[in-house]
Write a structure and sequence with these properties.
The chain is of the alpha/beta class and 125 residues long. Helices cover 42% and strands 23% of the residues.
Amino acid sequence: MLDVKVNILKNRLYITLGRIPKNRVNGVHLTIEKALINLAPGFTCITRVVDIRDVDEKDVAEIKKVQGLLDEHGMTMAARVGVEHGKEVLTFMGKNMHYAAFAAKTIDEAEHLLDQWEMDRKVDA
């Protein structure tokens, strides 16, 4: 299961990763690439991980491709919500990216923290 949404007013991407059968992550980057057309550089992202069991080498390659795509399109901050193991996997795979990421317990907490981070960033500019 993959769900990708965009909030243009917030310049924010929302990705939900559910249980994806083995070797079925292939092509996820195409879906996300289409969503990125609507976002400006400096966008933020909330990734909700529902289930990330049985990830293999091909899946890892696709996840890294997605993270690189987000990085290339100018994502500045990510919040990860959901299954702890999934958040850890994404953090480990994304450690060489140029964007920062943090874990949150809920979507509401992630929204609040990203909104606060963006307000603080505007004040510092």
